[in-house]
Write a structure and sequence with these properties.
- Helix 1 crosses helix 5.
- The chain contains five helices and nine strands; from the N terminus they run βαβαβαβαβββββα.
- The protein is globular, with a radius of gyration of 15 Å.
- It is 30% helix and 17% strand.
């Protein structure tokens, strides 16, 4: 598919709103409208060579889903359908939401689980993000002193969301665009 696919999991709607902002910033020329992961199929996701995937953080660093007390199916119910799926040739950028003050000991730790699934199945992961500007004790979603994707705190730092999104999207567009060129 010659556009970026945007997929998200959500429970309260915050991740959906961020996915919509990403779509608005990229525009319909580069991206398709965001899709809730509980309303799509693996085949739909796999149509895209460039993906932006978003997740909230629930539980103790688990993927959000029914077992983490989400009200609807989420990533935890979706990713088992990707077992043994070869994602080579896919370029994937991740964003995650978390609350750094309330969950300082596990800030945005669900993001690493999504990273492990896609990276483990061969996807090229892009879009790491600096940990500077955040106040937390620990996050499992850090590799080489960077988050594995963009992390947003919609409760503690909502005033920084738009700026972070703009900077991150400018960073990942050149990394995702080669996948789009190959798909065309």
């Amino acid at each position: 598919m010659s556009k970026i696919g945007i997929f998200f999991g959500t429970d309260t709607g915050s991740t959906r709103l961020v996915a919509k902002k990403i779509y608005g910033l990229l525009g319909e020329e580069l991206a398709d409208k965001p899709k809730n992961i509980n309303r799509t199929s693996p085949a739909e996701l796999l149509r895209y060579d460039a993906l932006i995937l978003g997740t909230p953080s629930y539980g103790v660093g688990d993927l959000p889903g029914l077992t983490a007390d989400c009200q609807e199916a989420n990533w935890a119910e979706f990713v088992p359908h990707l077992d043994d799926t070869d994602l080579s040739g896919k370029r994937v950028a991740l964003f995650g939401l978390g609350h750094q003050e309330r969950y300082a000991s596990r800030f945005a730790s669900s993001l690493i689980k999504l990273y492990q699934v896609f990276y483990g199945n061969g996807a090229q992961m892009v879009g790491r993000w600096s940990t500077e500007g955040y106040q937390f004790e620990h996050s499992a979603s850090i590799i080489d002193n960077q988050f594995v994707g963009l992390v947003l705190d919609q409760r503690g730092q909502p005033h920084l969301t738009d700026e972070r999104l703009n900077i991150w999207l400018e960073q990942i567009k050149p990394q995702l665009l080669p996948a789009l060129a190959q798909a065309a």
